């Protein structure tokens, strides 16, 4: 899954870099406020991908005496920075551009055909990047033998702890919405000659960016604070552990994501009476194996089984 995340981020990076340069040139040539907003958007997206790649790289650092559970949360931290700093700044710049054009003197608006061409090209790049990112969620669905329909894709998206791929999907979705808003504003200005439509489009794009930024910040905040595995995974683990004949009941289970795939698990179980030490050790190993069945990419040494006395 990590390789899929990196591929999706690189696809978004190179696509956004080319789009950003093209949009800035188009904005300078046409004077469109909404195209300036889209330029800020694509520039921030490009910077976003660089920070996401940095987070992925740092999260792979080995454990140290100071960070004994590794650096997996680096990915959550840099995704949070992307949401709060760059996405937010881009939104503010877009709002500022829109309001200054709306409340100030009528701004320059020339050669709208250039904007149309650039937006069509940008939509193609963003759509392809989104397709690559979504394919990341399709693989586990197909592997389970289910259909990769909207409901299953949404479920994977909702339960995913891979903040890099979540950020790419949110960015690309915001980008396509922004392109649509910009196109409408430019078209209305083109046919009416009223540049206020163009300015309003810039304001809407800014509001969209800030809304998506808030959503991403909220998701990453939860993971930084220590988010548990999904309810479905909890149910699977409890179901498997309870199938072990010697397990009377699961007393408590606590989990926390240390990275998108690595989880620390603490589970306390009550066993039937009359078991010797060797048998208890065998059952403990079996419980660990059952947990690893649900969390195959986690580490066995991060699973702690406690026997209720």
Automatic annotation (TrEMBL):
Gene Ontology MF term list: monoatomic cation transmembrane transporter activity
Keywords for this protein: Membrane, Transmembrane, Transmembrane helix, Transport
Subcellular location: Membrane
Residues annotated as domain Cation efflux protein transmembrane: 10-225
Top-level lineage group: Archaea
Bilayer-spanning residue ranges: 76-93, 113-134, 165-187, 199-217
UniProt xrefs under SUPFAM superfamilies: Cation efflux protein cytoplasmic domain-like (SSF160240), Cation efflux protein transmembrane domain-like (SSF161111)
NCBIfam families attached to this UniProt entry: CDF
Xref: PANTHER family: HUEL-CATION TRANSPORTER, PROTON-COUPLED ZINC ANTIPORTER SLC30A9, MITOCHONDRIAL
UniProt-recorded name of the protein: Cobalt transporter
Organism of this sequence: Nitrosopumilus ureiphilus
């Amino acid at each position: 899954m990590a390789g899929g995340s990196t591929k999706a981020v690189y696809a978004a990076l190179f696509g956004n870099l080319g789009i950003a340069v093209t949009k800035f040139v188009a904005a300078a040539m046409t004077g469109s406020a909404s195209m300036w907003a889209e330029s800020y958007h694509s520039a921030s997206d490009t910077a976003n991908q660089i920070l996401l790649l940095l987070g992925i790289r740092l999260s792979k650092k080995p454990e140290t005496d100071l960070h004994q559970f590794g650096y997996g949360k680096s990915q959550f931290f840099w995704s949070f920075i992307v949401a709060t700093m760059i996405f937010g700044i881009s939104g503010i710049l877009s709002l500022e551009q829109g309001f200054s054009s709306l409340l100030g003197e009528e701004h320059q608006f020339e050669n709208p055909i250039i904007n149309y061409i650039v937006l069509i090209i940008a939509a193609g790049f963003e759509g392809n990047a989104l397709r690559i990112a979504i394919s990341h969620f399709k693989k586990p669905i197909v592997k389970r033998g289910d259909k990769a329909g909207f409901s299953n894709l949404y479920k994977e998206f909702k339960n995913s702890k891979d903040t890099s791929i979540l950020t790419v999907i949110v960015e690309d979705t915001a980008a396509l919405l922004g392109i649509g808003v910009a196109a409408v504003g430019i078209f209305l200005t083109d046919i009416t000659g009223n540049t206020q439509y163009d300015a309003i489009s810039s304001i809407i794009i800014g509001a969209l960016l800030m809304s998506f930024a808030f959503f991403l910040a909220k998701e990453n905040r939860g993971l930084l604070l220590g988010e548990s595995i999904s309810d479905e995974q909890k149910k699977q683990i409890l179901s498997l552990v309870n199938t072990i004949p010697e397990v009377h009941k699961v007393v408590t289970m606590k989990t926390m994501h240390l990275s998108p795939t690595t989880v620390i698990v603490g589970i306390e179980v009550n066993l039937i009476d009359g078991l010797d030490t060797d048998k208890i050790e065998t059952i403990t190993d079996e419980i660990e194996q059952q947990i690893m069945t649900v969390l195959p990419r986690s580490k066995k040494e991060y699973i702690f089984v406690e026997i209720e006395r």
